[in-house]
Amino acid sequence: MSAKQAQILMAVVILTRSSAYIFSKTGLETLGMFNLLAARFLLAFLVLGVIFFKRLRHISRHDLMGGAIIGAVFTGVMAFELTALKTTD
What is the pTM of this model? Predict the structure, then answer.
């Protein structure tokens, strides 16, 4: 990956993350915290499942457990972030 490609990728990641923050704040007005998390994670699972379907058929138990642990940690982090968004102006 070239430096130019890395900079473009970083810009896309920053834009995506900042827009997700705004949509999370808006989403909390109509949905509960865990409902919003469930909707976001389900949407991500479906999109990535379609993209990586062939690779998912050959996943090992070790990889599945590692993904579950990372997912649990990420859910906790997102829950704390949404709690902060809900309690601040």
Answer: 0.66
